[in-house]
Design brief:
This protein is α/β, with parallel strands linked by helices. The chain contains 23 helices and 27 strands. The radius of gyration is 31 Å and the shape is elongated. The two termini are 22 Å apart. The mean pLDDT is 94.
């Protein structure tokens, strides 16, 4: 149908309001309580217009368009209603905008500027109400509430949570929680829709969760942005909640080819950023990924990418997670890929640096087989030629991803005594079934997950007593809390905040001398500063010492590439090395990080190498049809107090008897219960942002 607004004829749909039709046509009508995702109520009266044949000004948001309708936006009657409405809104609103976090982005500010109403003309009525910062994630600044009702409609109608409502207070009516309850007590789902639709900043995110260095979207969904591979975590968690593990697995596999491996051993940095931490404990993102992988039927394979052969050849040196990931995506792009691995099996540190009780051999074999099925040729027990030689042999591009397989010894007295070894060799030999002879009492030096891998492996090999000593206190340790806890359950003795002075003994190891650390930090030059407690020295009697203080690449000096910081390969932001056509990715560039970081580096290497080989650099896969999640999440009794679901683990006394799997995957029901705890933060980004008047 056609209607006329201020002399301009526009198209309107049946059932469409005059306001929506006008805005869609690019004609601005002032409005505030209206929102693109909420049912209009006409409460603010700022959208009042004059309609031919109707005596009084009418709210455009509640007036449906009719054929031939003639509308005047800036008529005398409409302007009078509008001005009165704005004066009433501003009467109890703070006059100083400059200190407000919404300054410059406030819809109310935009509206009164458009209408030419200045703060100096406001008729003030005091409404002093204390801010409420007592709730997790959400701050209420009640003096900014203009009673538009958007938050209430978002909570009640859009989300179906039904926590917010109009409440009567001694300062008047405002949006709030009936019966004086907290958001937790009222079973808030903390989805943030109320924050997103609030036009003035009366409801805001807690300041501490909004970090300046991140974009708005990254702050709203921090788990997704923190994941190095940017897996769509809320999406696969939602599918698990719905019981659709195939779709959940497909979401993960759109970004990584090692879902079950990651679900077993990922350092899950995403969980540290999960907003659910403010309600007790984060979503078990890692374990849910594993649940998706083990319950995957493989339906996603019907949609895998397989481009036509390009005739280009790529070589990958090193079959760890970075190299295999790059090879996988390069093969999907149609390139002929050969991976060279000097060990007898592929997997890199996943194979030789992570004990079988965390990552079983058959699991890794299964996922590597899936990668090879993409068309990757794997040559094991094959010491690769240098990158330059491979280029001469006909490869068009080469990736170096050899990882960090050489353990590091600290320059301590006694570090060359019999009974001293390094983490990489100790773990590799144990994984190969040819372990070092184990002492009765073992000391592991280091405070990361690898140190715990060494300590727990030593127990399984027969050590009677195992210690870990590290400079960091327990809060600073890089070990994940579950590693520390499981190690303690198995009997690992932790000496956190201790410096190692020397290894004692003459013909063999007899002990390690430790001293308490009062303070340990890095100065402005990143140099370690260690303050020790005088007189706190003690010697721990042990007959074996394992250094787990780091590891580095080996053999890189023979590659003919520019190096940095010793044996690490110098690569630019695009992972290019000093040799044309040669790239480097993973720990050999960055130092030892994590499996997920290596996978992310492998993806980036594939993108860059594909461009070099003549492709467009697009390695993306869409394994699912796009779906819009339901905005209605409903009520959940006791939601804030839902406890994290933990998987079943073997009893400590039993698990130290061998290298059997310690932790079982979550069952389907357990996974669904855990997924129910998700705040579904990503739904908030689907809410449309109203355009300000100067955007029309």
């Amino acid at each position: 149908m056609k209607i006329n607004i201020d002399g301009k004829e526009i198209e309107a749909r049946e059932g469409q309001s005059v306001l929506d039709a006008s805005l869609e046509a690019g004609i601005f009508i002032p409005h505030l309580c209206s929102h693109p995702d909420l049912e209009a109520k006409g409460g603010c009266r700022l959208c009042s217009v004059e309609i031919e044949g109707i005596e009084d000004a009418a709210p455009a948001c509640r007036t449906m368009a009719e054929p031939g309708m003639r509308v005047t936006v800036h008529g005398v009657k409409a302007e009078k209603v509008r001005k009165t409405a704005m004066e009433l809104i501003l009467a109890s609103h703070p006059a100083d905008c400059t200190g407000c976090p919404k300054y410059g982005k406030c819809e109310l500010q935009s509206m009164y500027q458009y209408m030419g109403v200045g703060p100096e003309r406001w008729r003030k009525k005091s409404r002093s109400v204390a801010n409420d910062d007592s709730n997790p994630l959400i701050s209420h600044l009640f003096t900014r509430c203009i009673r538009c009702g958007r938050c209430i409609r978002a909570c009640q109608d859009l989300r179906g949570v039904k926590v917010l409502d109009y409440i009567q207070t001694n300062t008047g009516i405002r949006a709030g929680i009936p019966e004086g309850k907290s958001l937790q007590e009222a079973d808030c789902r903390f989805c943030g829709a109320c924050i997103e639709v609030c036009p003035t900043g009366s409801i805001m995110d807690q300041v501490k969760i909004m970090k300046e260095e991140r974009s708005y979207a990254e702050n709203i969904v921090p788990c997704r942005s923190t994941c190095p591979a940017h897996i769509d975590i809320p999406k696969y968690v939602r599918y698990i909640r719905q019981g659709d593990f195939d779709k959940a697995a497909a979401v993960v596999r759109e970004k990584v080819p090692f879902p079950e491996t990651l679900g077993s051993i990922c350092n899950h940095a995403c969980e540290a950023e999960c907003k659910r931490n403010e309600l007790g404990a984060p979503i078990s993102v890692c374990k849910l990924k594993r649940a998706a992988a083990v319950n995957d039927s493989g339906a996603w394979k019907a949609r895998i990418r397989r481009d036509a052969p390009t005739g280009k050849k790529a070589a990958v040196i090193g079959a760890g997670p970075a190299g295999l990931t790059a090879a996988y995506y390069l093969a999907k792009k149609g390139h002929q890929v050969t991976v060279f691995e000097k060990n007898e099996k592929a997997g890199g540190q996943c194979r030789y640096g992570i004990p079988a009780y965390r990552l079983p051999e058959e699991l890794l074999d299964r996922e590597i087989t899936g990668i090879l099925e993409a068309g990757v040729e794997l040559k094991t027990s094959a010491e690769a030629e240098t990158p330059g030689e491979l280029l001469k042999q006909g490869f068009d591009s080469v990736l170096v991803s050899v990882g960090t397989h050489q353990g590091v010894k600290l320059p301590l007295e006694g570090n060359d005594l019999p009974g001293v070894c390094v983490n990489t060799e100790f773990l590799k030999r144990a994984r190969q079934g040819n372990p070092f002879p184990i002492g009765e009492k073992v000391m592991v030096l280091g405070g990361g997950n690898v140190a715990y891998d060494c300590a727990r492996t030593a127990l399984r090999l027969g050590a009677k007593e195992v210690h870990i000593a590290c400079l960091e206190n327990e809060q600073q340790m890089t070990s994940t809390p579950d590693e520390i806890e499981e190690g303690a359950q198995e009997g690992v003795l932790l000496h956190a905040a201790h410096s190692f002075l020397r290894i004692t003994g003459e013909e063999k190891v007899t002990g390690v001398e430790l001293q308490k650390v009062e303070r340990f930090y890095f100065d402005e030059n990143r140099k370690a500063v260690i303050d020790l407690v005088e007189g706190s020295n003690q010697v721990i009697p042990v007959d074996q010492v394992i250094f787990a203080v780091g590891q580095k690449p080996e053999g890189t000096d023979a590659f003919g590439l520019e190096l940095t910081h010793g044996p690490y390969i110098q690569a630019d932001a695009d992972l290019k090395t000093s040799m044309e056509g040669v790239y480097a990715a993973g720990d050999v560039v960055t130092g030892t990080k994590s499996v997920i970081a290596a996978i992310a580096a492998g993806r980036k290497a594939a993108e860059q190498m594909d461009r070099y080989l003549g492709g467009d650099g697009d390695i993306s896969e869409i394994l699912l049809d796009p779906e819009t999640p339901d905005a209605y999440i409903g009520q959940a009794e006791g939601f804030a107090g839902l406890r994290r679901v933990e998987p079943q683990t073997a009893e400590p006394r039993e698990r130290v008897k061998g290298f059997g799997l310690v932790e079982q995957p979550l069952t389907c029901e357990e996974a669904r219960c855990e997924a129910e705890r998700c705040l579904q933060c990503d739904l908030r980004l689907q809410l449309r942002k109203p355009k300000l008047w100067n955007e029309y």
